[in-house]
Specification:
By secondary structure, the chain is mainly alpha-helical. The strands form 3 sheets. The chain has a 4-stranded mixed sheet with strand order 3-2-1-7. Strands 4-6-5 form a 3-stranded antiparallel sheet. It has a two-stranded antiparallel sheet with strand order 8-9. Strand 1 (about 5) and strand 2 form a beta hairpin. Helix 24 (about 495-515) runs antiparallel to helix 25 (about 520-535) and helix 34 (about 695-710) packs antiparallel against helix 35. It comes from Billgrantia sulfidoxydans. This is Bacterial transcriptional activator domain-containing protein.
Length: about 750
């Protein structure tokens, strides 16, 4: 084994002399290591900066910082592997054992001629997809490279496992682990599943073989792929060697009750009809569901099931009803005419849609049956409902999957239905994961909102404009966010009922977040509250807007009450992002009261919630906020500095500015004027980009106080004058209070 090992298949892993090394916390630094490792030539610094950083992040400085971390990881005494000069960077991998490189080299040399032991060693090194969890989809060039490498690695591993299973066919016990790995890698590949079934039967494990048969059929159907018959042929044709007790007969057939071999053609009447419905609900049909979807009363269903159990077509156990043999379920399903099959799937999907989703299996069934019904609108709505349920239970990847499947289906739709459903799917997709190309995504959402407006779909137009506003707000485009917020309100100005209330409340909330047109926000909110009371409508946008306006007026107790109400409503509706934002505002109340002990407790809740949300800035913010509390309570700034690095990379300017201003205040209390000036200066840059007057006022006030303490009179005069100019305009009451407190400090010290 080489002294240094780099594993890229699965989570990134670096080993020195067999010992796993601690990796840098920065995902971009780890991504940089992988990128350099698979490029044999030196790469320009400009290219690497464009690949992984954005201009506001100081790309060259970030690259230098990452390289300093990587040197400690890959270099060793007397051996410099990371080579960097003023123009380029390269990694000498001559003596680094890289799993992905070894896999591709083995495939290129020819798998059919390679030593089987070498093939097995290479197969064992595959721990998962290439750079699992390190896609960085906000950076399209790196993301595209990563996906291409992942696809290439998966193809190479599939070829390797296929070769092993074929070459070890005469020793099934040795081939079996590789067949299992092949199926895990390509779960929808009928050939892989058929070889696994064949090996399990050859090893006298019929129960496991049947489970794999049923699972394979179900997965392939749910994916909308055709079955080519390989699975059923593997089940039918594989024969075990005779044992002394069954010599001269097929052991599997001999072990099966005679009635179980009855062909499906023997079924008739109610039993045949119930068994057809059971085939659609396989592998575990539920008697209650059978009664509801078949239209038969309980007695007729019970009698049919009794006949099926007596003939061993169905068995009842601790897990409920099951087909004794998956082959019978497949035969019954294939015997139903396509038109009737679609109608039956539609009936099941409609029945499932009438009930609240309670588990992932139910969500998957709804999506499967709706898709198999052939009704595009029903299928897309099922994807939306399944995705929303996944968001409630923090299954974000699954929610993203359903949203993407739904968007593919809308490509075949036209008119108002397509526009409205596509907007709901984009809303679902944004809640599940940040957009890889947020500018293009926001543009697409605005285009759909405009189309919805043209079709008269006012509620969906409002949804589109507000979604675009949220996307742009999160990325600092506050001017565009402001315009799209107003457009959302205009879209539903003539609307009625609940949609009008939500539109006005959401607009008031967005205007308050943007600190724009606050008088208009107050008027809209008053109208929304009046209508909501009259029509008995409750929505978290109303207390969120009330809380933001109260915070702007520095009425902290009222704001806290509203944010608690909003948090409760968001939790009840399954709006996890809204719940996080309400909790985030409550944390800000704690900061404004300098109650860091309470803030730390709230940070624990934020970390738990943020860690289960999409891969956005929520989790890094919660970690950084908790580190800030630790600084306040233990006077230890190191963990906060580390946490800021991750938050900066998350592209969350507003959240970053808030924490930096709080940290700068703490720095001044602890007589660390240099650190306070640095933090307040960075916060000021972010606040300027975001056009946040309140944060700009506090940043200038802090910088003026830092300059006064450091004896920098020109800087003090500059920032004091800028703060005074901002204070004459509309700013938040809390920022004005903090400014006045800082302004009074020199006078108080002079009097003393």
């Amino acid at each position: 084994m080489n002294a240094l090992t780099l594993n890229l298949l699965g989570d990134l892993e670096v080993l020195r002399d067999g010992q796993v090394l601690a990796l840098p916390p920065s995902r971009k630094t780890r991504a940089l290591l992988a990128y350099l490792a698979l490029h044999t030539r030196s790469l320009s610094r400009e290219h690497l900066c464009d690949l992984l950083w954005e201009l506001p992040d100081d790309p060259r400085g970030s690259l230098r910082w990452s390289l300093s971390k990587l040197r400690r990881l890959v270099d060793s005494p007397g051996r410099t592997r990371l080579r960097a000069d003023r123009l380029g960077v390269g990694l000498d991998t001559a003596d680094i054992d890289i799993d992905a490189v070894g896999l591709h080299a083995l495939c290129s040399a020819g798998l059919a001629q390679a030593d089987i032991a070498a093939l097995e060693r290479a197969a064992a090194r595959y721990r998962g997809p290439f750079l699992e969890g390190l896609e960085l989809d906000r950076f399209p060039d790196f993301h595209g490279w990563c996906l291409a490498e992942r696809e290439a690695a998966m193809r190479a591993q599939t070829a390797l496992l296929t070769t092993l299973v074929e070459r070890l066919a005469d020793t099934p016990e040795r081939a079996l682990p590789h067949a299992h790995a092949w199926v895990r890698l390509t779960p929808f590949d009928e050939t892989a599943r058929a070889r696994l079934v064949h090996l399990l039967l050859a090893l006298h494990r019929p129960r496991e073989a049947e489970h794999q048969l049923q699972l394979g059929v179900r997965l392939i159907r749910e994916a909308g792929l055709p079955l080519n018959g390989q699975l059923l042929r593997a089940w039918r044709e594989t024969r075990l060697p005779p044992t002394p007790s069954t010599r001269g007969a097929d052991p599997f057939v001999a072990a099966t009750p005679p009635a179980a071999q009855t062909p499906s053609s023997a079924l008739k009447g109610d039993t045949l009809e119930v068994m057809r419905w059971a085939a659609l609900l396989a592998p575990e049909p539920d008697p209650a569901t059978l009664g509801q979807v078949s239209g038969f009363d309980t007695n007729r269903v019970g009698m049919a099931l009794e006949v099926a159990e007596r003939h061993h077509w169905l068995t009842s156990g601790s897990q409920g009803l099951r087909f004794t043999h998956g082959e019978l379920a497949s035969e019954l399903y294939q015997a139903i005419t396509p038109a009737r099959r679609q109608a039956m799937h539609r009936r099941i999907a409609e029945w499932l849609a009438e009930r609240p989703l309670n588990d992932m299996r139910q969500a998957a069934s709804l999506a499967h049956h709706a898709h198999a019904s052939g009704d595009l609108e029903l299928a897309v709505r099922a994807m939306i409902e399944a995705g929303r349920y996944c968001l409630r239970i923090f299954a974000n990847q699954e929610a993203q999957h359903y949203a993407q499947r739904g968007l593919v289906l809308t490509d075949d739709m036209t008119g108002t239905r397509r526009v409205c459903l596509a907007l709901e799917l984009h809303d679902l997709l944004y809640s599940a994961a940040p957009m890889a190309d947020w500018e293009a995504g926001a543009g697409e959402v605005v285009a759909l909102a405009e189309q919805a407006l043209e079709h008269g779909a006012l509620a969906h137009a409002r949804l589109g404009f507000q979604l675009a506003s949220h996307i742009r707000w999160a990325h600092g485009q506050w001017r565009d966010a402001h315009e799209q917020t107003l457009q959302a309100e205009r879209a539903t100005r003539c609307g009625e009922g609940r949609e009008q209330v939500i539109a006005m409340a959401e607009t008031a909330r967005c205007l308050a977040m943007l600190e724009r047109d606050l008088n208009q926000a107050g008027e809209l909110l008053a109208q929304a509250r009046k209508l909501a009371i009259q029509q008995h409508i409750g929505h978290p946008a109303i207390p969120l807007a009330q809380g933001l306006l109260s915070l702007h007026e520095d009425r902290l107790d009222k704001a806290e009450s509203y944010f608690k109400e909003a948090r409760t409503l968001c939790k009840a509706m399954g709006d996890r992002l809204g719940e996080f934002q309400a909790q985030e505002m409550l944390l800000l109340m704690d900061f404004e009261r300098d109650d860091y002990a309470q803030a730390r407790e709230r940070c624990h809740q934020l970390r738990e919630l943020g860690g289960r949300l999409r891969d956005g800035s929520e989790a890094p913010y919660a970690v950084a906020a908790e580190a800030l509390c630790h600084y306040a309570l233990a006077d230890d700034p190191d963990s906060f500095g580390v946490a800021l690095v991750t938050l900066r990379h998350a592209d969350a300017r507003h959240r970053l500015a808030v924490l930096l201003l709080q940290a700068a205040r703490l720095d001044l209390i602890r007589e660390r004027a240099d650190s306070a000036r640095q933090r307040a200066g960075e916060a000021l840059e972010h606040a300027r980009v975001l056009e946040r007057r309140s944060e700009q006022l506090l940043a200038h006030a802090l910088l003026a106080e830092c300059a006064r303490r450091l004896g920098d009179t020109p800087a003090w005069r500059q920032h004091a004058q800028a703060a005074e100019t901002l204070a004459r305009g509309p700013v938040a009451g809390w920022a004005r209070r903090r400014w006045l407190a800082l302004l009074a400090q020199p006078e108080a010290e002079d009097e003393a």
